């Protein structure tokens, strides 16, 4: 009789614990975006020799401005999917020289016109 009780208790425990994995798929988990979400069409608007104000108008404020090197702005984005726990990281680093864009590196493609400065109106 005791063996039957232990066997029944083990069966109930096994069914209960296996049910946790089924319930986990039914629980809603939120997506977690952090940082600057930047689209490719925004990056394509950037040109060499743009001012900091122009870059900030197109991309918004950077997540990180280095206190010791004000000539480098970091746009960082991280997205964690609630359903799959997949993690996506993207970054864009803008380097300035004398207050104007000198180079851009990161996970985005620059437009073919990037090396062509915007026309300035002479006075």
TrEMBL record:
Record's GO cellular component terms: Bam protein complex
Keyword Signal listed: yes
Main location: membrane
Gene3D superfamilies registered for this protein in UniProt: 3.30.1450.10
UniProt keyword Membrane present: yes
Outer membrane protein assembly factor BamE domain span: 35-104
Keywords associated with the record: Cell outer membrane, Lipoprotein, Membrane, Palmitate, Signal
Self-association and partners: Part of the Bam complex.
Protein name, as recorded: Outer membrane protein assembly factor BamE
């Amino acid at each position: 009789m005791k063996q039957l009780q232990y066997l029944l208790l083990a069966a109930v425990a096994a069914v209960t614990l296996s049910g946790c994995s089924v319930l986990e798929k039914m629980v809603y988990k939120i997506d977690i975006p952090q940082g600057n979400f930047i689209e490719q069409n925004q990056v394509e608007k950037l040109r060499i020799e743009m001012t900091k104000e122009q870059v900030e108008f197109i991309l918004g404020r950077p997540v990180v401005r280095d206190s010791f090197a004000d000539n480098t702005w970091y746009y960082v984005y991280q997205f964690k999917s609630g359903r799959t726990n997949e993690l996506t990281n993207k970054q864009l680093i803008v380097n300035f020289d004398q207050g104007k864009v000198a180079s851009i590196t990161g996970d985005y493609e620059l437009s073919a016109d990037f090396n062509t400065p915007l026309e300035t109106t002479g006075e």
